[in-house]
Amino acid sequence: DDEIQSWGPHRARGYVVICPATLSNLNEREGKFMSMKPLPYDGKLLAPLRGDHVVQEAWESDGIEAIVEELQRDLNVDPDRVVLTGLSGGGNLAYYALFHRRANFRAIAPRNPNFYPQNLGLAAAPAGKGPEPFPVHIFEAGNDEYAQTIGPGGPPGVRPQTEAALAELKTRGFSNVRHTVVPDVKHNESTQYYGQILDWFDEVLGRQQ
Question: What is the helix (H) or strand (E) element at residue 109, kind and residue range?
Fold first, then answer.
């Protein structure tokens, strides 16, 4: 609900916004619902989330694409104008979609993103033949408290993860990649630069503001 409300000031931009929670990337506090009795979701539905991380990301992508298909059917959304952004752990899902499902999107913008290559099934990702012009724009918070590490003693933070993601994109021939560091913004304050994200999507889609 908070995510939907945060896009509210931009409703005049003409986008249909969907904001699913990426259950495979929940923080430990939020993840406690997985052990709730009864579960808020059908246990069979959540079963894939207890297994391989690559399977989890694929499961999440299937869900997002199913919602988009409904929007195309019910609201006549143009399938050639679907874009994707994802915050933090949702950024890792955005990378999964980029490497495996980009044919379903016009542009992808991970924001303050995690990049866990071991969870992305990169060995199975389609390899292009030459430069890949798909538009990618990584937005990074300039004052991210997780810039160097993800918590005390945790894995490398958003900054080194983003450097690794940029290197992977270069290795795979992505030739239309931008990286913007937004000053004075913390990890969970990406709402402050939603306008910049939409400006870039408008540019990619050829939309006039």
Answer: strand 107-111
Taking every pair of Cα atoms in the chain, the longest distance, rounded to a whole number of angstroms, is 51
pLDDT confidence of residue 29: 47
Structure tokens at 124: 């199975």
199: number of Cβ within 10 Å: 14
Amino acid identity, residue 157? G
Q: What average pLDDT score do residues 138-142 get?
A: 97
CB-based burial label for 150 (10 Å; 0-12, 13-18, 19+):
middle
Other Cβ atoms closer than 10 A to 164: 14
Q: Which amino acid, one-letter code, is at 196?
A: Q
Model pLDDT, residue 151 = 82
d(CA 153, CA 147): 13
Say if CB 98 and CB 122 are below 8 A apart.
no
Alpha helices in the chain (DSSP H): 2-6, 28-31, 43-46, 53-74, 89-100, 158-171, 194-205
How far lies 43's CA from each of 36, 52, 83, 182, in Å? 11, 17, 30, 40
For 41, which DSSP code?
S
Residue type, 103: A
d(CA 124, CA 137): 23
User: Would you state the structure tokens that stand for residue 145, as one six-digit string?
Assistant: 């408290």
pLDDT digits (tens, 9 = 90+) for 107-117: 999 999 999 99
92-108 tens-digit pLDDT:
999 999 999 999 999 99
